[in-house]
Amino acid sequence: MGDRGQLAGGHMDDPATSRGVRAEGAARVALVGAGPGAPDLITVRGRELLARANTVLYDRLISHELLGLCRPDATLINVGKHAGVHSVPQQEINRLLMEEALCVGAGGLVVRLKGGDPYVFGRGGEEASALAAADIPFEVVPGVSSAVAAPAWAGIPVTDRRFASSCTVVTGHRRADGTLDIDYDALVRTRGTLVFLMGVATMPQICAGLLAAGAAADLPAAVVERGTSASQRRIDGTLGGIAERARAVGVESPAVLVVGAVCALAPELDWYDRLPLRGTRVLVTRPADRAAGLVRALAGEGAAVEEFPCIETRPLPSAAKMLGRLRNFTWLVLTSTFGVRCLMDVIAAGPLDLRCLGHLRIAAIGSATAAALAAHRITADYVPEVYDGAHLGAGLVERTDAACDRVLIFRARDSLTDLPEALERAGVPFEDVAAYETVLAPVSPAPDLARRLAAGEFDAVTFTSASTARGFARAFPDVAPRAFTAVCLGETTRRAAAALGYRCVVSHAATIESLVERTVEAIGRERGAQGGD
Ligand code: SAH
Fold this sequence. Notes:
The protein has helices at residues 44-52, 64-67, 90-104, 124-133, 146-153, 184-190, 203-212, 242-248, 266-269, 288-300, 317-322, 337-349, 367-374, 389-399, 418-426, 447-454, 466-475, 490-499, 512-523; strands at residues 2-6, 28-33, 55-58, 75-78, 109-114, 138-141, 167-171, 193-197, 220-225, 233-238, 255-259, 281-284, 304-307, 311-315, 331-334, 361-364, 407-412, 430-440, 460-463, 485-488, 503-506. Helix 3 (90-104) crosses helix 4 and helix 12 runs parallel beside helix 13 (367-374). It has a 6-stranded parallel beta sheet with strand order 1-4-3-5-2-6, sandwiched between helices. The protein folds into 4 domains: 2-144, Tetrapyrrole methylase, N-terminal domain (Cobalt-precorrin-4 Transmethylase, domain 1), CATH 3.40.1010.10; 148-273, Tetrapyrrole methylase, C-terminal domain (Methyltransferase, Cobalt-precorrin-4 Transmethylase, Domain 2), CATH 3.30.950; 281-310 and 442-523, 3-Layer(aba) Sandwich (Rossmann fold), CATH 3.40.50.10090; 314-440, Rossmann fold, CATH 3.40.50.10090. The protein starts with a strand and ends in a 10-residue tail after the last helix. By secondary structure, the protein is of the alpha/beta class. The structure holds S-adenosyl-L-homocysteine.
């Protein structure tokens, strides 16, 4: 991913800044709303275009998760603005956008990714005008605006009809001469909800203006800071006191100021604040390509989730070699979702297709592996009730005939021996193919993370395999093992983590759902006597 970082001036000659320039050779430009902050609040269309774009110009508040959806070969240009300081002047952004459209050329796609909705402040209209003037084809993908999303996550329904029949979205941004362009009398007359964006610095002025225009000092008001993120903060108050309260607790941009009777509902309706992992911080150590489900599930319970992959899985040459001998077997056994991916990859890379599996019965160690198979329209013939090697082995013994069946185990090098031992005891012929290997990820220096772990900033670290625990211990040798709770997937993982000195709790079942449930029990707000051992 080529990130050109912060762009200053100094570009090639103005290719298309005036009307009439022929822009037939230009790529299409999409002004895409990224949503208010939480990466999964982008629209489906926005995500699709982002994944297709040749070039993406993005703002400061765009999350790295969203940028992670871009094509690996996409050019990423940060045109971010800092509060008050336009790091790239708007005219320069307009020009850059047109330049990129011409540079990418016809048939290509340039995405201009903007926070919230592109046309709710944020100057999307000016960018569209520049494109229209230059005859560059463009489309607009609306986004979820922070003007409604931040209040929604904080329990404020902006037009709840019991309290308000209108909602006015207002900019609190100063004009070049330092003044605010707000008609306070008109706003007060609406008697509806008022939402101020870009109003952190000018909050005292805004509130004074509304009071002077006759609004009641005891009108409910609220500030929602960093809405829809794990660090969201809601500050309640009244029109007369909210500015001082926001200052006292150090509110910073981005934040919205909401004024109106609807704010009184917040204590009752703030669902986000009530999530069980709200206020906790969890580190996920799975490889990045398999962490998404766990990260999303933990975030969905309100945790602030960070990732530090401690292992990597890579295929071995024996995986491809085994394909030619598949017809010698009657059963195929898969023990991880990576195993399924690896199998599909080697089939795709070779001369055969899925029919090479047609004669086999297939066993999966657990529900996740079975689901990975199902994604390829393959239904596992057998999944044990308890997701481990011993139960898988016992179940296979029951389902096979030692006289005519042959089992192929397609799994990681150095896996546990429970499964082959069970088959061996029963005399079932099998072959154990080391199809891939798990290695501890190369340790990139993460001094800040080490410091924060040592300082107890993380309530929990999740380990989904013994190797993630070992990889973590290698990456953070100086972090006291009892600085956090180690939440372990399955007993084998727990044993490995406990041997390293970590204070462990173990999931009841070997599934991501169970791991999340256990995390909630161990560190969630209803923390019982479940601190681990
Ligand atoms: N187009 C954007 C608004 C851009 S103006 C939208 O539709 O949301 C930038 C202002 O939006 C910030 O100063 C702040 O007032 C508000 N804002 C953006 N993200 C926010 C968030 N996550 N929480 C609270 N306010 C936010």
